[in-house]
Amino acid sequence: MVVRRAYKFRIYPNKSQEILIAKTIGCSRFVFNYFLGKWNDAYKETGKGFTYNTCSSELTKLKNELIWLKEVDSISLQSSLKNLTDAFTRFFKKQTKAPRFKSKKNKVQSYTTKHTNGNIAIVGNKIKLPKLGLVTFAKSREVTGRIINATIRRNPSGKYFVSILVETEIEELPKSSSSVGIDVGLKDFAVLSDGTVYKNPKFFRSLEKKLVKAQRSLSRRKKISFNWHKQRKKVAQIHEKITNARNDYLHKVSTHIVKNHDIIGIEDLAVSNIIKNRKSAKSISEVGWRSFRTMLEYKARWYGKQIVFVSRFFPSSQLCSNCGYQNKAEKDRKMRKWDCPQCGIHHDRDINASINLKNEAIRLLTVGTAGLA
């Protein structure tokens, strides 16, 4: 199966390369905002926006007026226009909100450049990038496949990264003839119907005191001063450490589940609605359910497995997985274990819910109404 896959590496640009990256990010942002403003004005006056070709020809004229736009990679400026037109396309299809102006205060700053005529290539322990030339990078693994584009990012911590998007062939994993249900939670991150329990490491809570101390120190610094910038990077590094630890854990769990099971049933949670509960918002944000679901989806698609989304209104924790009796008293989330009044079997709330999710996923596949990934 041919798929698009991204490889992310840390890069170590020298001073002149750092300056050029900053210029390219700024120019890409300027082009996006400039044409977004013109697009909005045209739409108000005529009821019609621009096309990519119109913007592209206008950009050529603009570069003759603003000479500093010629200092940076021209493809990155064209990519900004493409991103703008794609954003408007999604907006008119009612998939997203209207595009907004980009700010230089955004936490992550980046630009994208396309691969043409070998302008992006891996050369030993360095990566060749347009205008930047050869940049040292941490080559943690080999890049396989046809390179499509590269995105250069500067994190708030001051670190630089490159994400290389490639088109590559991935072989489907051998079938395991195994089905599983997944019940995600806060006490334990995930409980499978086969009894496997993945603990909730609580990465944010483990570094919360250190983060609070660093943020308090930042608030006492004079804004925009040297010491303020120095402390701001320390705060960003803690946030980055939390994010990296969480993503690493989610990747390991999702990969293990996809490799060992052919059919995976999981509840179709509306995380954006659940997170509105102030009492549990921090815990839900910390655990990363949405990222976990995304990882399961694309990995299942890569390796020929099936993800079945069970309705969020399905009473997975209330039903007895043995006889089907619905215990409505089980709505109380503090009740972790219960005995079925009908068949007498003893249930662990999470394992019982995951078994019901597995059974419901198989039923949906059988009747042909499953919501597949």
From TrEMBL:
InterPro entries: Cas12f1-like_TNB, RNA-guided_DNA_endo/Transpos, RNA-guided_endonuclease_TnpB, Transposase, Transposase_put_HTH
Domain of life where this protein originates: Bacteria
UniProt KW keywords: DNA recombination, DNA-binding, Endonuclease, Hydrolase, Metal-binding, Nuclease, Transposition, Zinc
Domain (Cas12f1-like TNB): residue spans on this chain: 289-357
GO molecular function: endonuclease activity
Domain Transposase putative helix-turn-helix: 1-48
Domain called Probable transposase IS891/IS1136/IS1341: residue spans: 164-277
Record field: transmembrane: none
Family: In the C-terminal section; belongs to the transposase 35 family.
Protein's UniProt name: IS200/IS605 family element RNA-guided endonuclease TnpB
Organism listed in the record: Scopulibacillus cellulosilyticus
